[in-house]
Design brief:
two-stranded antiparallel ribbon, about 45% helix, mainly alpha, 4 helices, single chain
């Protein structure tokens, strides 16, 4: 069982209990935000195999900072999370999060299996 750390939230003025693992990940994410100018080479994406087709997408200048942050956080999770996590799971979760952030109960993301179950 992971240890628990009691922290004081300066914004709300309340004490909060956080798991050590969760706190560690939050510290890493904050460190990435502070040095967002560029990810370190240790966090860089590995090259894809020649068999896998690649797509080149131009990221708008206004979104490059957030894109780089997303990629850096994804890489930290893939490298350091205690559970076996794959990129597909993280991307699916990110897409679901985009729809959830709309706050619209009628907008929802369905993966292939969920979509296929609607027609059966």
């Amino acid at each position: 069982m992971a240890g628990v750390v009691v922290m004081y939230n300066a914004i709300t003025g309340r004490k909060q209990k956080r798991g050590v693992r969760r706190q560690f990940l939050l510290v890493l994410v904050l460190a990435l935000i502070l040095q967002i100018a560029g990810a370190s080479p240790a966090l860089a994406e590995t090259e894809t195999s020649p068999e896998i087709p690649t797509i080149t997408v131009e990221i708008p200048e206004a979104e490059k900072e957030l894109f780089n942050l997303f990629q850096a956080v994804k890489q930290v999770i893939l490298n350091l999370h205690s559970n076996d996590v794959d990129s597909q799971t993280l991307y699916q979760g990110a897409i679901k999060g985009l729809f959830e952030s709309l706050g619209d109960p009628y907008s929802q993301y369905l993966d292939k299996d969920q979509f296929a179950s609607l027609s059966s």
